[in-house]
Amino acid sequence: MSNITLEQARKVVDAAIKKSEELGVKMNIAVVDAGTNLVAFNKMDDAWLGSIDISQKKARTARYFNMDTGEIGKLSQPGGSLYNIEHSNNGLITFPGGVVIKDGSGNIIGAVGVSGSTVEDDHAVASAGASAL
Amino acid sequence: MSNITLEQARKVVDAAIKKSEELGVKMNIAVVDAGTNLVAFNKMDDAWLGSIDISQKKARTARYFNMDTGEIGKLSQPGGSLYNIEHSNNGLITFPGGVVIKDGSGNIIGAVGVSGSTVEDDHAVASAGASAL
Amino acid sequence: MSNITLEQARKVVDAAIKKSEELGVKMNIAVVDAGTNLVAFNKMDDAWLGSIDISQKKARTARYFNMDTGEIGKLSQPGGSLYNIEHSNNGLITFPGGVVIKDGSGNIIGAVGVSGSTVEDDHAVASAGASAL
Amino acid sequence: MSNITLEQARKVVDAAIKKSEELGVKMNIAVVDAGTNLVAFNKMDDAWLGSIDISQKKARTARYFNMDTGEIGKLSQPGGSLYNIEHSNNGLITFPGGVVIKDGSGNIIGAVGVSGSTVEDDHAVASAGASAL
């Protein structure tokens, strides 16, 4: 298993913060490794307190299923095939803002979760973070 | 970060109780500080037991995202952008009754959560509490 | 079942605060009813954050077994008859600071838990609170 | 209440990593704010996975009671005045490695928790982190 290093995780966080500053938003940013364990976390000043947990849950949710969190959310709606999957794994977050992180060879080495603004901003910041490697 | 004092929190609780008595309802009233820690709580006689926890979760939810809990609930519906956000932070309550508390300068210093009647009454009582400062 | 009223619970809290001020300590004070449900809580300014939970657990522990929390702690030591009873009920606190509250007829109507200083101070403040009725 | 900024928290983490490298150890390092909310976290490569949670619990425990975690551990032993306090607050860690963080005026603005080696190393790294401000 390829696994994200702390050096890589910090690059992801810093790229996410840079993107947040460009957008004028205050974010919580979490990076987990290939085993869904937390590697790095930063809470920007005045970012929502409730997003500390959400950013970590987004990162884990993305790695749990190797897809953007928003994709899972499409399937977890009432009547959907994964209805209420959020009850598993001590709580999933299935709206956008969680994105897998790949190395240069395309192997998934972790995931980043971002929370603190609209889900569009959250996803844009997470994507900017994941693209830093 | 400005933080609510016990003296202020007790004023919030007393104003909420006064409003509850005017409305003829029995409420649970919780006040948390800027860090979401509980500062004061009162359960009116014969208020719902299940609302002890709900009032505290409403107060924390309001401070977690710096908005009325009912605003979050509009976005967490099926198909909404924050669907099932309630699974985060050991359980959010996203219907009305949680309101942030500001000091005279407009700084958020805590939040109040009220539960025990209709969500309209809950919100009215919480607002009366928050307005006491 | 006789049960403590909010008016009585507030008298307990105020007596506990008065005693805390006399001792020069900062306390968290929780009152539960005969069913172990929270009725009133106050956190004095600058009291320990970790004692918010402990004060509530002390109050519940006292009512769970109808005795001072310190009495249970004597039995929960290694080799004791109630070794590690603290694992039950989502966590007990079995050192001093939790005291049952009785009405004028000697009926147990609730309990008070206090945390924020030495266990001797905690117990003295809890006892002052319970004696207010 | 004064509160640690992200810039300060990152200085604490970086100083802790530098000390860890000097000692030749692999650490998990967590920084919480004055309200015990997570602000920054780094897991050094190959640091123990079980220490991700422990470092965060140490940081919170230090701030919960405004003292080094090891001081609490002396009192929570069998027969001690705070025996089994670890059952509170969703789990405390009371051996060394958690240290409060103060600003230049002596105000507590947060805490740092370190886990990954002996408790002596954990404490030394946490202290180096806290001293960076």
TrEMBL record, chains A, B, C, D:
Pfam family, one: HbpS-like
Top-level taxon in the UniProt lineage: Bacteria
Protein name: Heme-binding protein
Species per Swiss-Prot/TrEMBL record: Sphingobacterium daejeonense
Lineage, opening ranks: Bacteria, Pseudomonadati, Bacteroidota, Sphingobacteriia, Sphingobacteriales
